[in-house]
Specification:
By secondary structure, the chain is an alpha/beta fold. It has 2 domains: 163 residues, Bordetella uptake gene, domain 1 (D-Maltodextrin-Binding Protein, domain 2, 3-Layer(aba) Sandwich); 98 residues, Periplasmic binding protein-like II (D-Maltodextrin-Binding Protein, domain 2), CATH 3.40.190.10. It has 12 helices and 11 strands. Helix 2 links the parallel strand 1 and strand 2. Helix 1 packs parallel to helix 10. About 2% of the residues have low confidence.
Length: 318
């Protein structure tokens, strides 16, 4: 027994020392979506806060493709030493069942270090769409089934799944147009190439103020201080429709447990800082945080919810 204890101590001491000395060089946060979207904004704010805490550079790298899974697989299969992190999303953590042939298993090869932030999506339309409110949009979609198009940041992203849930709740039929990031989809809404979008809130206020889009409703249960004049979907006539977006900071699941704990503690510390919380709140996001176990519990519940939506909508991709 004493020999086993000595062996265990010999294994754990180097891991503990590694976590204490972390980080030893530049850290990357992989964003699996295009630059300029909500995910990218969240990652860059978090990177700045971590760089100040660690006194090491923290850079953001955009790796696009397969609804975020190109970047996610890169992180999952990377060196599990904590120096490569990822901005995780609903599509990666909770709706991966959309894809039949992923080369990795996000549920077992990735671990969420903490929940980063949560916010509503905003149902926005091009100004030329003849719908001034959500009831009129539903009526228009029923009159023109399969004609209205909505863009998203990619298949199985929150901006896609919010649209699928909207169709299930209202019974309307829209055409989904996936992009390689929400900024690209938003540009096409503003240009009138597609009619609407269920966009993450942080990127909406500037284009809303400029009159380039019109906001019809929020997808949350309550109004947002960032857009206090925009009603919730329930207030706008669509009961039972709630679809918030959320992000994690995640890394390879093979990362040693002491290092996972250290990363969680540092992320919780920066998320608790008034400066970062204020930046997130200004964007319309609610900072989250929480332990490793709390993140795992949250993801389990969200995976159950969005798997039901994926199955009900019959969404399957190769």
């Amino acid at each position: 027994m004493r020999a086993f204890s000595l062996i265990l101590l010999a294994v754990l001491l180097p891991l503990s020392a590694q976590s204490q000395s972390f980080p030893q060089r530049q850290v990357r946060i992989v964003v699996p979506f295009a630059a300029g979207g909500s995910a990218d904004v969240m990652a860059r704010l978090t990177a700045q806060a971590l760089a100040a805490r660690w006194n090491q550079p923290v850079v953001v790298e955009n790796r696009l493709g397969a609804g975020g899974h190109v970047g996610a697989e890169h992180v999952a299969r990377g060196t599990p030493d904590g120096h490569t992190l990822m901005l995780g999303s609903i599509g990666i953590h909770a709706a991966s069942s959309v894809y039949r042939n992923l080369n990795y298993n996000p549920r077992t090869e990735l671990v969420a270090l903490t929940m980063l932030a949560e916010f509503p999506n905003v149902i926005i339309v091009h100004p030329a769409v003849p719908a001034q409110n959500l009831r009129e949009l539903v009526a228009l979609a029923r009159q023109r089934p399969g004609e209205l198009t909505f863009g998203s940041a990619g298949n199985a992203t929150s901006t896609h799944l919010a649209g699928e849930l909207f169709m299930l709740v209202t019974g309307v039929r829209l055409i989904h147009v996936p992009y390689r990031g929400s900024s690209q989809a938003l540009n096409d809404v503003m240009a009138g190439n597609i009619q609407l979008m269920f966009e993450n809130l942080p990127t909406v206020p500037p284009v809303l103020r400029d009159g380039r889009v019109r906001a019809l409703a929020l997808t949350s249960a309550a109004r947002s201080p960032a857009l206090p004049e925009v009603p919730t979907a329930a207030e706008a006539g669509v009961e039972g429709y709630v679809a918030t977006a959320w992000f994690t900071i995640a890394t390879a699941a093979a990362t040693p447990a002491p290092l996972l704990q250290r990363l969680n503690e540092d992320l919780r510390a920066v998320l608790a800082s008034p400066a970062l919380r204020e930046r997130f709140t200004t964007l319309g996001a609610t900072p989250m945080g929480g332990t490793l176990a709390e993140a795992a519990s949250f993801l389990a519940a969200e995976t159950e919810k969005w798997t039901r939506v994926v199955d009900a909508a019959g969404i399957r991709l190769d």
